[in-house]
Amino acid sequence: MRPTAPLLIAVLAIVGAVIGYTMWGQHQKLQQERAVTALVADTTTQLRQALTATPTREMFSRIDGNLRSCGAGSTPRASRSRPPRAAGRSPPT
Question: CB within 10 Å: which end of the chain, N or C, has fewer?
Answer without folding.
Answer: C
